[in-house]
Fold each of these.
Amino acid sequence: VFCVQAASEAVAAAHALSLPAEAYGNDPNIEMIWAMKAYQHAEVYFNLISSVDPKFLKLTKVDDQIYTEFRKNFGDLKIDVLDPEELKSEPAKEKWRPFCMQFDGVVEDFNYGTFLRLDCTEDYTEENTIFATRIQFFAIEIARNREACNSIVYSKAKQTKESASKDGSL
């Protein structure tokens, strides 16, 4: 019974998320669904970069295009530890907007909200997380992967597994 109810709720949530934003206003239930979806995405991504060497990851079909455009537009952006002002201030939004819009129709759900880690060496925590668009997430995380910023997450996880294995914990 629980599985059927959960499946029914998941289908209803998926349908709700496919409707235009204007249909809801500020419905707290929809905001909660968005937050849960963003959290699940963050959790899956962090587990992925903890399990696979990030330099080998391909996040989209157009990673090369995203990376090239990102570095062309934001060549001096420090990506290892992000300054929220570089994403959220009015001048930053003006610079990000045309970058993001060029991926409309290229990257599915390019403007969905998602969580982004401020310090790439750390996990998602309340202090280390900012809300960003999906294309901002992809641009920054593709750059972090290619520029070896996320390698420390993988290395830490690998060391932890090796230590646990030597201790007989696994």
Amino acid sequence: MASGDGLASLGVEGASAAAHALSLPAEAYGNDPRLEAMWAMKAYNHAEIYFNLISSVEPKFLKLTKQDDQIYSTFRETFKDLDIKVLKEDDLKLAEAKERWRPFCNQFEGLVEDFNYGTLLRLDCEKGYTEENTTFATRVQFFAVEIARNREGYNDAVYKANCLKS
């Protein structure tokens, strides 16, 4: 199913209700499969838009947030040796990794909109969003990794591959 088909099938009232539902705090819900489906569609749409962006604009010129400089410098101070070209899920998911990520992420609360909102992150930056190449991350983790990939030239491979197709 195309990502637009799911939202279109909701109609205006349904899409409006979905937008409202996604803005409520997580504590307001149990494990509602409809909400999970809406979240998945929103996360997928975000990923698709971002990938199209780095495919069509030279990544080093992209500005993802007003805090890009702060996010990047803090990220590289905190995660000096993190291989961002090919991330491992353990870099984000192991208990030790979470203990390093938590204070990093929390310092952006109030600075980065929806800083802890769930998003999709590519593991290998030279590949697209596939089931094998995608993991869940918070929005500020996504920004930190992708800002670094853009500034350090790792996302250039996606841009150049798309330019060769054109």
